[in-house]
Amino acid sequence: MNRLVVVSNRVADLTKGAQAGGLAVGLADSLRERGGVWMGWDGQSLKYEEQPEPRIRKAGEVTQATIPLTDQDYAEYYLGFANSVLWPLFHYRLDLVEYKTAFLEGYRRVNAKFANALLSVLRPDDVIWIHDYHLIPLAAELRQRGCKQRIGFFLHIPFPPPEILAAVPRHRWLVECLMEFDVIGFQTLTDRGNLQHYVEDHLGCEIQEDGRIKLGEREVIAGCYPIGIDVESFVEMAEKPNDEVQIETHRRDILGRRQIIGVDRLDYTKGLPDRLRAFARLLELYPEMRKSVALMQIATPTREEVEAYVDIRKELEALSGEINGRFADFNWTPVRYIHGTVPRDALAALYRASQVGFVTPLRDGMNLVAKEYVAAQSMDNPGVLVLSKFAGAAEDLHEALIVNPYDVDDMARNLCRALTMPMEERQERQKALMQRIRERDARHWLNTFMSALEKGETQETT
Ligand code: GDG
After folding, report:
1. Widest CA span of the chain, in angstroms?
2. How far apart are CA 369 and CA 345, in angstroms?
């Protein structure tokens, strides 16, 4: 087996259990198993003239190589092009895109730095797997430096339709950079279809019967590889008793109360304001639900230096205060809004202790929280997943209650349906969902992507 070299913007700390962010969780699970090299930014911004050598550390079977960036890189590449242009654009939020030429320059500069740093680590027979929207030009930079290795790319977030992509300057260049990879992986068929339409319309490419994209002499595999979780380790974690969560659950049981749970990075793509409104609507439409159900929303801080994230935080704090002000009683708080990070084992226990998992992104590549919620349920008395139709996970998890995250009444009705669903139906749905997430777990994701990258297999031929 060739050595696997993974590259992503940040490298997760593999010695720690708690990681917020789907990419870190998905990759850490996969790499721990196979071993290899993981390269990325170390999270520091320093002042330097000459690019420093990557810092090398071992964590079990994984060698981590990290580099610092400068303040200017951080502002232009990370906060700028990646998170103020590509992130909103790829989530169909043209209204939030803030494009500046300096951002694009910073993006190219940092991708060149990543390429230089990688050169000192690479061996000729490595296979390289690059992750996410921060590093789209990296294969092109590596090719310019003579790299002949096979290089794959996985996009963790959605890929927008051509009309949306075309709103950003240099969109054609971005897609041409993508075409320098040997394999491009997407979460869903919709995302893959969007790229295919773009390359047919704008680059005059041909899509072959087996799904390969032909651009002149080059052939690129574009496939759909939905990311999964390490189901067994999550089940184990959820089954382990957690004293603090158990005491809380016991108190709720005595009072005959149920809990709806939401867990997200505090991001405007996650549909949080309308989620809170839907919960308030539930209490309005079904007064019998008052005092018998509460919403726990964990919102993990993220990208706090980008203005749109400051706005969403303020909006949510105001909304949860408003709902509590309107409905709370001396012994019942309808919304528990937690702006912070919860340890992973407590999170698993909280999912298990909640009768509804409420996952309502406006647009999401996959959404691992949906899969974690399913993995954490007990077959004896499972909870119900209420899931947005715009999460990549909805392409797979049909037995969830699928909702429109823009329709507050639809979400409220489905919350009520979830809270009153008979046991037999809950068990049937849980069984089917569990089977699906087991079939498409983290290992399956890694294996299918790697067979395309190492053996050139397309899904149409497997
Ligand atoms: C991107 C794409 C795609 C969250 N809060 C805490 C915490 N988390 C963990 C969750 C989950 C992960 O972070 C979030 O993953 P998601 O998939 O839900 O969302 P993104 O961070 O936006 O991830 C997404 C993913 O990449 C993978 O490809 O699914 O569509 O946007 O694992 O549990 N973990 C802990 N404490 C928290 O407070 N320990």
Report:
1. 71
2. 14
Alpha-carbon gap, residue 293 to 419, rounded angstroms: 9
The answer, yes or no, to whether any atom of ligand 1 lies below 6 A from the CB of 25, is: yes
Q: Residue 462 falls within a domain, yes or no?
A: no
Q: Whose CA is nearest to atom 6 of ligand 1?
A: 20
Choosing from 73, 364, 396, 441, the catalytic residue is 364
- What is the rounded CA–CA span in Å between residue 420 and residue 426? 10
Does residue 133 share a domain with residue 58? yes
User: Ligand 1 within 6 A of 394 CB?
Assistant: no
Judge if 286 and 202 occupy the same domain: no
Structural domain contains residue 461: no
DSSP conformation class of 214? E
Q: Whose alpha carbon is nearest atom 19 of ligand 1?
A: 22
Residue 44 CA to ligand 1 center (angstroms) comes to 22
Q: Given pLDDT bands bounded at 50, 70 and 90, which one contains residue 417?
A: very high
pLDDT at 17 over 60: no
Name the helix (H) or strand (E) containing 69. Answer: strand 62-69
pLDDT confidence of residue 48: 77
Residues 351, 425, single domain; the answer is yes
Q: Mapping DSSP to helix (H, G, I), strand (E, B) and coil, where does residue 253 land? A: helix
Q: How far is the CA of 330 from the centre of ligand 1 (A)?
A: 34
- Give the atom of ligand 1 at the shortest distance from the alpha carbon of 344: 39
- Cα of 435 from ligand 1 centre, angstroms: 21
> Is 348's C-beta closer than 6 angstroms to any atom of ligand 1?
no
State pTM to two decimals.
0.95
- Angle at alpha carbon of residue 145, lines to 8 and 214, rounded to 5°: 75
Do 254 and 391 fall into the same domain? Answer: yes
Residue 336 forms beta bridges with which residues?
296
How far is ligand 1, taken at its centre, from the CA of residue 432, in Å?
23
CB atoms closer than 10 angstroms to residue 351? 23
Which of 134, 156, 264, 267 is catalytic? The answer is 156
**Residues 84-97 pLDDT 10s:** 999 999 999 999 99
364 is catalytic: yes
Q: Which of 8, 66, 6 is nearest to 31 (CA)?
A: 6
Indicate the pairing of strand 206-207 with strand 212-215.
antiparallel
Using the structure block, give the residue that is written with the tokens 């509460």. Answer: 294
